[in-house]
Amino acid sequence: MQGLIEFFKSLPKKKCQKCGHDIFEKADCYGNVCDECDHPAR
Ligand SMILES: [Zn+2]
């Protein structure tokens, strides 16, 4: 398990282009915005 955590830690963190929050485990299809900013109702 530890190896898996280290693997994710080593991944470059994506930041939301709108609010600057870190984007966690999002698929690439989300682009560069977090869930909040990517909400269709906003
Ligand atoms: Zn955001």
From TrEMBL:
<dbReference type="InterPro" id="IPR025432">
    <property type="entry name" value="YhfH-like"/>
</dbReference>
<protein>
    <submittedName>
        <fullName>Protein YhfH</fullName>
    </submittedName>
</protein>
<dbReference type="Pfam" id="PF14149">
    <property type="entry name" value="YhfH"/>
</dbReference>
